[in-house]
């Protein structure tokens, strides 16, 4: 049934398995454990907490949109237009999911021919000035509650100014 050779092979297999586990544990210890080598410090990230007694830092004043728009780059805005082109077109009368945006800067609100505006946009009055467009694309649902525009908004004021400068050229 069992001869000496079988028992020797089984014993050697157990020793080999033990050796693999031992070497694997040693390798894992070297890779995943940070040894301080007797130094007096703790491994990890240092997180600076604000001092409760220190005065709060003044927030940086936001640059007015008019100043940013005055130096806007229409070329950079053309690259940003690609996000908008999924729902809007720049050809007069070519409405998609959203109204066409040709001539949008300075145009009265909700006047794109053939587009069925949501109640949120129909409630707005006035023209699409660069400032109004900036406020709208920064937070569409905050500017026009009830709008059906599902865009989440564009946070960067320079990106908004560049995009509006591009739209002003169309």
TrEMBL record:
Molecular function GO labels: electron transfer activity; heme binding; metal ion binding
Coiled-coil ranges (or none): none
Keywords noted in UniProt: Electron transport, Heme, Iron, Metal-binding, Transport
The organism's place on the tree of life at top rank: Bacteria
InterPro entries assigned: Cyt_c-like_dom, Cyt_c-like_dom_sf, Cyt_c_1A/1B
Signal peptide boundaries: none
All copies of domain Cytochrome c, residue ranges: 72-170
Name of the protein described by the UniProt record: C-type cytochrome
């Amino acid at each position: 049934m069992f001869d000496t050779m079988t028992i020797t092979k089984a014993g050697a297999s157990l020793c080999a398995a033990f050796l693999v586990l031992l070497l694997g544990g040693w390798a894992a210890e070297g890779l995943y454990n940070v040894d301080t080598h007797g130094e007096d410090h703790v491994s990890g990230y240092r997180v600076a907490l604000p001092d409760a007694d220190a005065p709060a830092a003044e927030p940086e004043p936001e640059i007015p949109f008019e100043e940013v728009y005055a130096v806007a780059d229409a070329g950079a805005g053309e690259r940003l237009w690609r996000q908008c082109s999924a729902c809007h077109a720049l050809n007069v009368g070519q409405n998609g999911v959203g109204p066409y945006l040709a001539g949008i800067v300075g145009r009265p609100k909700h006047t794109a021919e053939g587009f069925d505006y949501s109640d949120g946009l129909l409630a707005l009055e006035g023209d699409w000035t660069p400032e109004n467009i900036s406020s709208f694309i920064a937070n569409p649902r905050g500017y026009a509650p009830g709008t059906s525009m599902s865009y989440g908004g564009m946070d960067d004021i320079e990106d908004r100014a560049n995009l509006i400068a591009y739209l002003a050229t169309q």
